[in-house]
Amino acid sequence: VEYSYLIRAHYKTYTAGMACGYPVSVFIAVPNIYVANVSNGLQISVSAVGGANTYEIKKSTNNGAFSVIKTLDNKSSLSFVDTAVSGDVKYAYTVRAIANATLKSEESTQVVATRLATPVLKSVENIDNGVTVHWGQVSADKLLTTYDVYRKTGSGAFAPIGSSTTLSYND
């Protein structure tokens, strides 16, 4: 938004001429957006910028059109979990800061994320001195490099026991 200002002084019945004004550009910084896989969806977080009252989050699915999915209030949390996501689908997100109806930042650079699907356990086989656990691939893009493996005993809690770069783990 660009504003121009003129200044005029008054004293009792005297009025000065108008001082010439210069155009002044008023802008609001572009916030950053961050996306992370969490257990129930994709967590969207934005960085606060000075002067912003709200943040408008837009989403695109598989390179489609962007649409507003959430408006975050600067007085509350600047993150939320997008649960309207499916595994192995690409989502792009942008954010823009809004100070008022006429003062809005440019949209941020797109951040693209793929929701990772939950691995499906295929089999457990006995081997000498343990078992081998097998599961199915979760990413259509084959970008995954590591799977974390957890185990629990009886009614105890799951605890990490290792990781694998393949679709199986020997325990």
Tell me, rounded to a whole number, the average pLDDT.
85
Oligomer: single chain
Radius of gyration based on Cα positions: 27 Å
Terminal CA distance = 62 Å
Written as H for each helix and E for each strand, in order along the chain, the element string is EEEEEEEEEEEEEEEE
Counting DSSP E segments of at least 2 residues, the number of strands comes to 16
**Biggest sheet: strand arrangement:** 8-7-10-11
Query: Could you say which structural class the secondary elements and strand pairing correspond to?
Result: mainly beta
Helix proportion = under 10%
Q: What is the overall silhouette?
A: elongated
Parts with pLDDT < 50 across at least 5 consecutive residues: none
List the total number of helices: 0
Strand portion, in percent? Answer: over 45%
Main sheet: strands, sense, barrel: 4 strands, antiparallel
Give a written overview of the molecule:
This protein is an all-beta fold. Helix content is 0%, strand content 51%. It contains no helices and 16 strands. The strands form six sheets. The chain has a four-stranded antiparallel sheet with strand order 8-7-10-11, with no helix packed on it.
